[in-house]
Amino acid sequence: MFREDFNSYKSQNPPLSKVLNFNDCKHLLTKQVKEVKVKMNAKAKFGLKPSKDWKVYELNNNSGLIFIKNPFTVTGQRYWIIRSLRDYTNKPNKLNLDIHNIIPQNEEFWTFSQKDINVMNKLRWATLGYHHNWDTKVYSETSKSDFPLDLASLSQYVADVLNFSEFRAEAAIVNFYHMNSRLSGHTDHSEQFLEAPLFSFSFGQTAIFLIGGATIDTKPTALFIESGDIIVMSKESRLCYHGVPKILHAEVNLLTNDNEEINGEELNCDTLEDCNDSIYWTTFQKYINNCRININVRQVLRPINSILDS
Ligand code: SIN
Fold first, then answer.
1. Locate the Fe2OG dioxygenase domain: which residues (predicted)?
2. Does an H or E element contain 279, and which?
3. Ligand 1: nearest atom to the Cα of 242
4. CB 202 less than 6 A from any atom of ligand 1
């Protein structure tokens, strides 16, 4: 069932009318989704709007699959895009490009890609914190680097608003999609502590995302993920098959109204200035006009308390 639907959505003419569109929630409510109540934190942080303005839903058919309709400001989205492309691609984070030795030892991805556009087109993923091992699927104490503080704080803040306050960000995969990219159906089960939710932040072009059941025999639900949307896979949905059969161009011009005020004292100040420097931003805008970035944040280890209890 998952495979058949994946093939249908990846085709030239995907059945778009069957894809849940969270811009049209009045139509969806009660049938496919229900609204979720969240903590009303007074202060807007990490490039997010105040949580009283968030629109948060849970799928009726996939318990624990939470969808937050773009809670970011424009500057907030720009911040996470710049961090993903320019900074999270720095050593010692790992990139798909590493095995090909394309980037000289003494250079970082971003500076090198400004001289060689092919390198930019070849970027597919970066891993942060405990590095995902694509072959063995096993995390190792010998393959980890510091997890970026701002991304850990963003994830923990969103977790707290949704009442998952024990969440700790320990590993992330940043996926870089082009218009012809796909991500096959899979489950994320390498983490030791699968009770912890997984947080997925998306920026740039639109994805069709499929979320199915514990096996490939369940028919998946298809949703549009647009720039700024957050998906949380918790409870039963945490171990469900999911994938991205198609990337589509967004219906609106993304991230174009700049110079908006944000209170970003907890973010990197220089990067915040870069977000509102229209000349500096141009290169990132060009990238995002034809690409999508997805940052997938996981907790790997069991919390100390749960080890002591067992
Ligand atoms: C993933 O499942 O690893 C990424 C999902 C997405 O790109 O939305």
1. 168-301
2. helix 278-288
3. 2
4. yes
> pTM to 2 decimals?
0.94
Closest-CA residue, ligand 1 atom 7, reads 294
Residue 176 lies in a domain: yes
Å from CA of 182 to ligand 1 middle: 10
Question: For residues 187-206, b (16+ Cβ closer than 10 Å) or e, as one string?
Answer: bbebbebbebbbbbbbbbbb
CATH of the domain at 153: 2.60.120.590
**270 within some domain:** yes
Alpha-carbon distances of 180 from 47, 290, 301, rounded to whole Å: 29, 10, 35
Q: Is 203 in the pocket of ligand 1 (CB under 6 A)?
A: no
Report the number of distinct structural domains present in the chain. 1
| Omega within 30 of 0 (cis) for the link into 303 | no
Question: Does the residue 306 lie in any domain?
Answer: no
Give the domain extent around 113.
Answer: 2-301
| Average pLDDT per block of 10 residues along the chain, 310 residues long | 96 95 79 90 85 94 95 93 97 93 91 91 96 87 94 96 94 97 93 92 98 95 97 96 97 68 75 88 94 97 72
Backbone φ and ψ for 42, nearest 5 degrees, come out as: -65, -40
Q: Is 100 annotated as a binding residue?
A: no
Classify residue 307: in a domain, yes or no.
Answer: no
